[in-house]
């Protein structure tokens, strides 16, 4: 990473203020080429920015310099706080681009340098990526916990416990003939207890829902026979017209998705074709897709008057505002797509169901990548637990420790980094 990089790091221009960051070995020299002497470290100074070769005035703005030992990237870093016009930003970027050793940054390159310099670990970088894309309060809170190091600290605790167990096993291997470490059977039982406790701790975290549930939204499918009120209800839940409503059965022939944010939680509702047997080829395709959606759903709302096909489905008494449907059968939730309060009881039921499907506000939640590695580490620890062959136990503990390191990127995970930082904007 010998290049010095620059990019717009604030929001899309035009805006009131635009922040252009420069980071790398010649960041200070590049900045001085535009503004002359820099202000003292970490103190804002008003400067005139000029084109290096012609001296033409580009803008007047605040300049801040951050030496490498205290910067977020681990390199010298300069921020230009400019007027947020497109032409201003374009002119400053053009002036930086002609300086030797300076180039535009790639997506996520600033954060990637932070990771490489040890300013943050991979779990914090993933949390930062989630924070940048957060749209709900629950997403924001979970992303902040990850970005602030909650996951890293938990992984470090697991890794430290693994190292402690491995140290005892290695000591037993080295001194099993000397008798100064303790009786082998007693030591083995003690190590096994430590490993078993560690596995239980990991299993508790793995038993919680993944963090993707917060970001992708809970998938709720509305299912039932034709003309059972699915389209009317999804419009009411989304509070906008997303599906065509008609008294003609079979109006909906394909899946219709409606993303909704309510009470700080993301949902994805899907209207489906009515489940029926049909000789109509198009309608049959719609029914097949409806069944696929039901199989992949987190929750299914069953709007048919008959018993739900599965006990896990939420039985809904739709069109409850109609005179002939005002009696609500036992075990069903009344809902109406035409009245203001028609979905209140249904939202309450969905909220209760969601509480078991998404991470709680104060819980540590792993993403799918982290979960897979933690699960593999737990498996290695189980193999080590109770091993009579200490060499095999030591190898399994080494594998578990390496898997923990891969979660935080202490081990090489280049393919993961490439995928992660592709999600970032250019200036982050």
TrEMBL record:
Enzyme Commission identifier(s): 3.6.-.-
Assembly mode: Homodimer. Heterotetramer of two MnmE and two MnmG subunits.
Gene: mnmE
Protein name: tRNA modification GTPase MnmE
Chain positions recorded as Mg(2+) binding sites: 231, 252
Annotated positions binding GTP: 227-232, 246-252, 271-274
Binding site for (6S)-5-formyl-5,6,7,8-tetrahydrofolate: 21, 79, 119, 428
Keywords, in A-Z order: Cytoplasm, GTP-binding, Hydrolase, Magnesium, Metal-binding, Nucleotide-binding, Potassium, tRNA processing
Cofactor: K(+)
Gene Ontology molecular function terms on file: GTP binding; GTPase activity; metal ion binding
Chain sites annotated for binding K(+): 227, 246, 248, 251
Assigned GO CC terms: cytoplasm
Domain G per the UniProt entry, residue ranges: 219-309
Organism: Sphingomonas guangdongensis
GO BP term (any one): tRNA wobble uridine modification
Family assignment from sequence similarity: Belongs to the TRAFAC class TrmE-Era-EngA-EngB-Septin-like GTPase superfamily. TrmE GTPase family.
Function: Exhibits a very high intrinsic GTPase hydrolysis rate. Involved in the addition of a carboxymethylaminomethyl (cmnm) group at the wobble position (U34) of certain tRNAs, forming tRNA-cmnm(5)s(2)U34.
Subcellular location: Cytoplasm
Enzyme class: hydrolase
Domain MnmE helical: 122-425
Positions of the GTP-binding protein TrmE N-terminal domain: 4-119
Pfam families to which the protein is assigned, alphabetical: MMR_HSR1, MnmE_helical, TrmE_N
Cofactor binding mode and count: Binds 1 potassium ion per subunit.
